[in-house]
Amino acid sequence: MPFKAGVFRSFLIPFMLAFLLQACASESYIVLLENPDGHTGAVTVSGEKGKQLIKKAGDGALLDGSQAPAPVAADKIREDFGEAMAARPKVPKRFILYFQIDTTLTAESEGQLPTIIAEAASRPAVDISVVGHTDTMGKADENAALALVRATLVANLLKEKGLKYHNMTVESHGERNLLILTPNEVYEPKNRRVEVSVR
Amino acid sequence: MFKCVVLSGYLLSSVLWAADAPIGWVKNVTGDASVSSHGVLVRAESGTAVWQGSVLRTGAKSSMGITFKDETIMSFGPNTQMSVDEYLYAPAQGQLSLVGKLAKGTMNYVSGIIAKLQPDAVAVNTPVGMIGVRGTQFVVKVEE
């Protein structure tokens, strides 16, 4: 009996895989991949024929939702998606610079500025956002102004040190976008920061 | 008088235009690709701006890569058409949304901060089904 079940399974699984891959060859489909950072998330497909959740890298499914996710051969991914994958721009990089109590960067963060400038130089049409933040000490509107002073200061320092860019935005999130969640009126050095996204 | 009215209309429209900032930039192109925004078609090259509502196209033997403000990445293989129908990225105001439509072709997608902060805010529609994105990378092909 176990022998019989084994034969049945070993026959059925390749048959099902072959069916999916063949169907994919002439249809619209999706394949989940590992993220550049090594994590794997998930995608759902909702079509006329059903809904599927894909959460394993390398698994694919038809976009009409008709079949359960199944592995897609690496060769097939390369053949169908090689050009799209080769055109993928460099993954953006984010730097977090911290402040002493006021508008003076910590020494360590000041030392990161040349790294940011070098990172920007390595990218085509680089666009940069500089976003200032505060902790929750003090009034919200004063923090909004302080965060903008911090962001402007970092943007100016980067430019003085030779940053070249295609586009740059300088913004303030004040105390509305905390890195470390705290109640109001809490002194938190990790929230006193400027985030620089280099894309 | 007439000149004055025309001029103030022009100034008003440029103010509105400025409020509507680019949401991303083309980073690389091989072959023929275009970006249509506000009814104007531009041949895409490194540095071309992408706006909410832009339609992105690639021709035969062509490809294009785009990076958005929230660090989402989309790159396209040949004969592809994708529109970015909705794009909201204001994390401090809690306004996050990315809705696109892949009409045909191939795309490699890497999710950015919008998907990280609010996973149900990201959707890619296709003629056969809708893709919901839970912070990840995927490739997708739509055959006409």
TrEMBL record, chain A:
GO CC annotation, single: membrane
Limits of the OmpA-like domain: 86-199
Keywords: Membrane, Signal
Superkingdom of source: Bacteria
Gene3D superfamilies for this protein: OmpA-like domain (3.30.1330.60)
One of the Pfam families matching this protein, by short name: OmpA
Signal peptide: 1-25
PROSITE patterns associated with the record: OMPA_2, PROKAR_LIPOPROTEIN
PANTHER family given in the database record: LIPOPROTEIN YIAD-RELATED (PTHR30329:SF21), STATOR ELEMENT OF FLAGELLAR MOTOR COMPLEX (PTHR30329)
Protein name: OmpA family protein
Organism in which the protein naturally occurs: Iodobacter fluviatilis
TrEMBL record, chain B:
Pfam family, one: FecR
InterPro entries named in the record: FecR (IPR006860)
Span of domain FecR protein: 55-142
Transmembrane segments: none
The keyword Flavoprotein appears for this protein: no
Presence of the UniProt keyword Membrane in the record: no
Protein name as annotated: FecR protein domain-containing protein
Signal sequence residues: 1-18
Keywords on record: Signal
